């Protein structure tokens, strides 16, 4: 059986783990009343909450629905767990958006702490879900999702990144993503872009990480469950 290469899912997951996992500390480091710094960190959290919501939406629409139709018996042991995890993550996403709105408005330390707590809870639920997905669901996807369907999922996923953040988005994936999987994606691009993306992406990510996390080299492996 020919397997579909689904490694880019892990690449996307590594960015979610790192950037959301580091967000509570970034929020807690903002002095109360510092509107400029609040805006920078709140924009970062908003971006990744939006990307995560989009990721789960297209995952449900393009992958999960197809698998339920094709291999319901193989998915049966996972359905209840995956659905409950998605519902928990979705509820915490809603809470996080509400807490973000409060913090943006007041810039107060107590509202920042309330947001940090919600994001910490979200990360706990999310990391458990991503681990279960990578362990149990990705092997099924590799067997039963076609390369064409996977390509559509990848394209839809990339479409959620604003065009002005194209270099940054690629740099985020390069930072700790599977080099071989990323190289395969690069080969699909026109030669000029294929050569420009890596150096420009790395530069954009270093600049962004310094601005948000205070270092161009934030910790790798955040949220990985052994």
TrEMBL record:
**Top-rank taxon, per record:** Bacteria
Hemerythrin-like domain ranges (all copies)? 5-140
Pfam families noted in UniProt = Hemerythrin (PF01814)
Name used for this protein in its record:
Hemerythrin-like domain-containing protein
Record organism:
Acrocarpospora corrugata
